[in-house]
Amino acid sequence: MGFSHVTSSDIKLFFSPAGDKQVLFADKLLKFTGTGKIKQRILLITNVAVYILDPETDILRRQIALVAVEKMCLSELSDNFFAIIIPTEYDLLMASPRKTEIVTILGEATKSSSNYELEMVFSNSFQYNAAAEMVKEVQFEEVEGGVRTRIVRK
């Protein structure tokens, strides 16, 4: 996996109760919190769940069954942002240069585990539930030399 601080025995602790059989993706990325902070996290996608780990403490921060994921929201521009929408919980807003790979793997894993096609919403503005009672909107705008991204509370 390439993370010296996450051992295979650590990962096996997650696998036993959830029924995971295979790691499909693992990498560091940025997660945006409901309060607007940016945290480095490890995203781990298996055949049955998505895991968010803290690379500094090796603590599992979140476990989301693939069947709980409703859709993914992405901009139509060249940026690293994406949101994983989970109707039964708060959503995840993250950024990674491997966004396309993450979207593809998560879509394929969802289809394999639950036989439904994960909805992909491409828009230069989308809303997500940053916390229980907090909706935020991510706005993307093409500017000279790149993409301007704004996150505003609704």
CATH class, named Mainly Beta
Arithmetic mean of pLDDT: 88
Beta fraction of the residues?
over 45%
Structural class: alpha+beta
User: What is the third-level CATH name, the topology?
Assistant: PH-domain like
CATH architecture: Roll
Global shape: globular
Total DSSP E strands: 11
Please give the domain count.
1
Order of helices and strands: HEEEEEEEHEEEE
Span from first to last CA? 38 Å
Strands side by side in the biggest sheet: 4-3-2-1-7-6-5-8
Low-confidence stretches: 1-5
Major sheet size, sense and barrel closure:
8 strands, mixed
Helical content, roughly? 10-25%
Query: Which homologous superfamily in CATH is the superfamily?
Result: Pleckstrin-homology domain (PH domain)/Phosphotyrosine-binding domain (PTB)
Q: Give the radius of gyration.
A: 15 Å
Number of helices: 2
Structure description:
The protein is of the alpha+beta class and 154 residues long. The chain has a single domain, classed as PH-domain like. The chain has 2 helices and 11 strands. The strands form 2 sheets. It has an 8-stranded mixed beta sheet, covered by helices on one side. Strands 9-10-11 form a 3-stranded antiparallel beta sheet, with no helix packed on it. Strand 10 and strand 11 form a beta hairpin. The radius of gyration is 15 Å and the shape is globular. This is Myosin heavy chain-related isoform 1. It comes from Tripterygium wilfordii (Thunder God vine). Residues 1-154 form the TH1 domain. Pfam families: Myosin_TH1 (PF06017).
Q: What is the compact description of this entry?
A:
The protein is an alpha+beta fold. It is 18% helix and 48% strand. The N and C termini lie far apart (38 Å).
